[in-house]
Amino acid sequence: MRKTLRALGATALATGLVVVGAGAASAHVTVKPDTTEAGAYALLTFGVPHGCGESSTTKVSIQMPEQIVAVTPSVNPGWDVEKVMEDLAEPVDDGHGGEYTERVAEVVYTAKTPLPDGYRDAFVLSLKLPEAEGETLVFPTVQACEEGESAWVQVPAEGEDADALELPAPMFELTAAEGDGHGTSAETAPEDEAADGGTDAQAASADGAPAATSAEAATPVATWVALGLGAAGLVLGLLAFLRTRRAGD
Fold it and tell me: In the chain, what are the helix, strand and coil shares in percent, each to the nearest 5?
């Protein structure tokens, strides 16, 4: 399957040749990343909006760019999923003290029940984007149907509009990384931690010594009030005792 897809993709990229079983459809198979930042961890959503002409979809094979090594595909109800592996010419550091000796070359979703034309589905892949700002990632995708198949593998030539292609491959361009390159800024602390930090900062005095917090400042006041109330209670109790003695006399 991997060799067939690669051969098909190479031919299509070189000559623009596409394979269509039951005719081209109006909408494309697309990829929508939740981030395009180079080096970021991303969720890529591949949308399949129709069949091959009027034929139901039975399999969707998504080929990974060579720069991508590890992929975690989502598990979709109604579909079996398979990662097709490929040996690497040289091991790649996995960032956790180990090495990758093979990469995910292709992710294949096979329908347990064919997806009818006129219905759509989506497949989400989790992966780390290459650190290559400005580079376009292309994901040649073959959609197999009960009758025929649609090979979404066309890539626009320089200056050509991708929308003008009959069966364009899903693709997107990597943009400049922001923050820590993981789609979020490492300098942004959770709200509760930021709030705690603000309280601690306000609690420090100008000379660096901890200043009394509002709770600590309120403690002496509460203590004096309690002592005053206690003394008043003792006085009232003494007066009541004296009145009782006099009445008895």
Answer: 25, 35, 40
> 73-99: per-residue pLDDT in tens?
999 999 999 999 999 999 999 888 999
Q: Residues 48-76, buried b or exposed e (16+ Cβ, 10 A)? A: bbbbbbebbbbbbbbbbbeebbbbebeee
Report how far Cα 145 is from the mean position of its chain's Cα atoms: 30
Helix (H, G, I), strand (E, B) or coil at 183: coil
The residue assigned the tokens 């917090």 is 213
CATH number of this structure's domain 2-173, picked from the four choices 3.30.470.20, 2.60.40.2230, 2.60.40.10, 3.40.1190.20: 2.60.40.2230
Q: In this predicted model, what pLDDT tens digit does every residue of 193-235 receive, in sequence order? A: 333 444 343 433 334 444 444 444 444 555 554 556 555 655 5
